[in-house]
Design a protein that fits this description.
The protein is an all-alpha fold and 433 residues long. The protein contains 21 helices and no strands.
Length: 433
């Protein structure tokens, strides 16, 4: 009977997702169907598990980072970063596309949110690429994929959820994302330069130290956020949670008193909008916790471990298997939900095979970054659609080259552990033991 109810659980979830029912409702409904049908689980336990899914200290950082990201958009920080990046890259062929990717990496280091990055950077850069007559499919594909690097570059909301689920240091995970994010974004940049040369796209500006100095001066306070987050954690002055709170306060101060683009009214509206966003993320995490609990009841982790831990299973083969699992999961659900469901199942097996949990975190988040713009339900596809007005089918076609490029990045991150472990091992020497 166990196999039957597991089949019902996964089939109902798949059907609900195909019907475009919101993911948190899909996760809850599929879980409730099995819970009610089996009838041996007290209903009160469901409420307890929902609350327990978000009642974790590590998740305290998440609302602050989401709030800080919204404050940065409203307070003018994103726009100044974009101008500074453009002044550095404007002389290179394909400068507008390169600026989009680099600015996304910078904004990702401020926000930790992939959809927020697509909205903030894409909203400013898509009209510019359109003006320069970039191919429409390429432009929207770049917008959707460039924002995905935000969940690798620290601070990352998905890394926070991974840390909460696995018990791994969030600070170590954040620092591991620097190397992984640079590889991920760097390969996209390489493809952009190749595309520009192939299609004879010329630069529209010359390099000017004066312009770099001017835009750098304007963006100086904007660059303080990653210094606070990464520098504070690297030196041990802040924990990840404390850095999140400080970055939100810093964004308010800079937006209101330095750039003076944020009023009390806009601060209030931003706070309300952030609260709605935070609620939508938290309810997905809670729903995923219920789904994961049902899997645990039916001993899915143990069954999977017995199936995979054979004498023929090697770390190399195991990493291939989990990459396939993660990529498929990322096509259908948000990274935070996927982490909450999949990691408790996968992590014990990975540890037995000698795979470092920080490295596994970088692999996981890299997969879910690709999932952010992979059909059918990649969230960035719909954000790019809203920004550009281009149809989803054309956006999907435009993302295909970027999916191919980032799959290469995924292979490198997976099989060269030092990409994600070299930097955190300097701050947390014990992670390599």
């Amino acid at each position: 009977m166990t196999g039957f109810w597991l089949g019902v659980l996964f089939l109902s979830l798949f059907v609900f997702l195909l019907l475009r029912i919101p993911i948190f409702i899909s996760l809850c409904l599929s879980s409730f169907i099995v819970i009610l049908a089996v009838g041996n689980i007290p209903e009160a336990m469901v409420a307890q598990r929902l609350f327990g899914g978000i009642d974790k200290f590590a998740l305290m950082a998440m609302p602050f980072y989401i709030y800080a990201a919204d404050l940065m958009i409203v307070g003018g920080i994103a726009q100044r970063l974009l101008k500074f990046t453009g002044s550095l890259l404007g002389f290179i062929p394909g400068a507008a596309a390169l600026t989009t990717e680099f600015a996304s990496m910078l904004f990702g280091a401020l926000s930790g949110s992939s959809p927020a990055t697509v909205a903030a950077i894409g909203g400013l850069m898509y009209p510019e690429m359109k003006r320069q007559k970039y191919d429409e499919g390429f432009s929207v594909g770049l917008l959707a994929s460039s924002g995905a690097v935000a969940i690798l570059i620290p601070p990352s909301i998905t890394f926070i959820v991974y840390g909460a689920v696995s018990g791994v240091s969030i600070g170590a995970l954040f620092i591991s994302g620097i190397g992984a994010g640079l590889v991920f974004g760097g390969l996209i940049c390489a493809y952009v330069v190749y595309y520009a040369k192939k299609n004879n796209i010329k630069s529209e500006a010359k390099f000017s130290l004066k312009e770099v100095g001017r835009t750098g001066k304007e963006a100086f306070w904007s660059l303080g956020v990653p210094v606070i987050i990464i520098g504070g954690m690297y030196t041990g002055f802040f924990t990840a949670t404390e850095a999140a709170g400080v970055s939100a306060i810093y964004a308010i101060i800079i937006g209101m008193f330095v750039y003076k683009e944020m009023s009390l009214e806009s601060l209030y509206k931003t706070t309300v909008n952030s609260a709605a966003t935070i609620s939508s993320v938290m309810v997905v995490v809670a729903a995923a916790a219920i789904f994961g609990w049902v899997l645990t009841i039916y001993q899915v982790p143990q069954l999977l471990a017995e199936a995979l831990l054979t004498p023929f299973m090697t770390p190399t083969v195991f990493l291939i298997i989990i990459n396939i699992i993660f990529l498929i999961a990322g096509m259908f659900m948000d990274g935070s939900a996927a982490v909450t469901i999949v990691i408790p199942i996968i992590l014990p097996i990975a540890l037995k095979l000698g795979i470092n949990p920080v490295h596994l975190g970088a692999i996981s988040v890299a997969n879910f970054a690709i999932g952010m713009y992979t059909p059918p339900f990649g969230l960035n596809l719909f954000v790019a659609n809203k920004i550009s007005g281009v149809g989803i089918e054309k956006i999907v076609k435009g993302t295909l080259p970027f999916i191919a490029v980032t799959l290469v990045a995924l292979v490198l991150i997976t099989y060269i552990p030092q990409i994600s472990l070299a930097l955190p091992s300097l701050v947390y020497p014990d992670i390599l033991k």
